[in-house]
UniProtKB/TrEMBL annotation:
Stored InterPro entries: Gfo/Idh/MocA-like_OxRdtase_N, GFO_IDH_MocA-like_dom, NAD(P)-bd_dom_sf
Keyword Oxidoreductase part of the UniProt annotation: yes
Organism of provenance: Streptomyces synnematoformans
Superkingdom per UniProt: Bacteria
Keywords attached to this entry: Oxidoreductase
Protein name: Gfo/Idh/MocA family oxidoreductase
Domain called Gfo/Idh/MocA-like oxidoreductase N-terminal: residue spans: 1-118
Domain GFO/IDH/MocA-like oxidoreductase: 126-245
Family: Belongs to the Gfo/Idh/MocA family.
Pfam families the UniProt entry points to: GFO_IDH_MocA, GFO_IDH_MocA_C3
Length: 335
């Protein structure tokens, strides 16, 4: 299989290496807005570097992986759809709700496969949690807690392009919440704090966020996120039911220290970033995409799933700004 990779930044370079390791990927064509960066990735992976995305799409590829800057996703997705090529796209589809809906309409009209990059669906812990919930091991769920904590803020220039903390980070927790529980979020009540580094206030963003999410069966979930967790990279999900409770992301590398007497300190070095923590999941989702393209696997995460998660975080942003509960249906029904 010959694959075109559009974007060779941090995640794109990781994907390039993973794709070249895959036994069914015979060749890889890469391109980037920075030609030198594309050339470097090509040199390291044995890929072919081309000048533009159009060149990549015209290079006889069987499928496309989009890992470019967020603002370019919708345009590149549209180009791939018009070329009739199956696409794996890192989230988000577009920078806003209108752009997302327009891009997904183009995908639907073209009839192509679109697999979205929500890698937590391929993490062993989240998979085990989903299986436990679906098998009824926990009994009726009453509480779910999610947390995404980055060890250090991104560059200031990234913030205006990120969509904000809810759209950039919490959307992963929302997708995982929907996927693990099999339930929909019906209402949110969210808040955010910009009390940290001043660059967040300058960008109109927050460095820490929290939301109370009500699911359609009455289960309550909380989602917290921060860009300033100096202890390390911390991504967890806790699920509590009437019979049992379990945790995802709780291991010797979780940057969490107990102060209870007699509890030994953790042995492992804390996770330092998402590529390290979720490396196996990233590789697994690309392997799944190859199988989807070959017709061996149903699409594990389509555009509809991405849109549903976006509706929830858009509701969170509205709730944060207006300081009120927001029904997700209010966002989904908006033109």
């Amino acid at each position: 299989m010959r694959i075109g990779l559009l974007g060779t930044g941090r995640i794109g370079a990781f994907h390039a290496a993973a794709l070249r390791r895959h036994p069914d990927v015979t060749s890889l064509v890469v391109t980037d807005a920075d030609p030198r960066r594309a050339a470097e990735v090509a040199a390291h992976t044995g890929a072919e570097a081309v000048a533009t995305p159009a060149d990549a799409l015209a290079a006889g590829v069987d499928a496309v992986v989009i890992a470019a800057a967020t603002a370019a996703h919708a345009e590149l997705l549209g180009a791939a759809a018009r070329a009739g090529l199956p696409v794996f796209c890192e989230k988000p589809v577009a920078v806003d709700l209108a752009g997302t809906r327009a891009a997904l309409a183009e995908v639907a009209a073209a009839g192509i496969v679109l697999q979205m990059g929500f890698m937590r669906r391929f993490d062993a812990g989240y998979v085990a949690a989903r299986e436990a919930v679906r098998a009824g091991r926990l009994g009726r769920l009453h509480t779910v807690r999610t947390a995404t904590s980055d060890p250090a803020p991104p560059p200031a220039a990234y913030l205006p392009l990120s969509g904000g903390l809810y759209r950039d980070c919490v959307i992963h927790d929302v997708d995982a919440l929907r996927w693990v529980t099999g339930r929909e979020v019906t209402e949110v009540y969210a808040a955010g704090s910009d009390a940290g580094p001043p660059m967040f206030r300058a960008a109109g963003d927050v460095d820490t966020a929290a939301a109370l999410l009500t699911l359609d069966d009455g289960t309550l979930a909380t989602a917290t996120a921060t860009r300033v967790n100096g202890a390390g990279y911390d991504v967890r999900m806790e699920l509590a039911g009437e019979r049992d409770q379990i945790a995802v992301g709780l291991d010797e590398r979780t940057p969490l220290t107990s102060v209870e007497p007699g509890v030994p300190p953790r042995d492992g070095k804390p996770w330092q970033g998402f590529l390290e923590r979720f490396a196996p999941a990233y590789e697994a989702e690309l392997a799944a995409f190859v199988r989807v393209v070959r017709g061996e696997l149903a699409n594990p995460c389509d555009g509809a799933a991405a849109l549903a998660a976006l509706h929830v975080v858009e509701a969170c942003e509205l709730s944060r700004r207006e300081r009120r509960p927001v029904r997700v249906a209010e966002i989904a029904a908006a033109a």
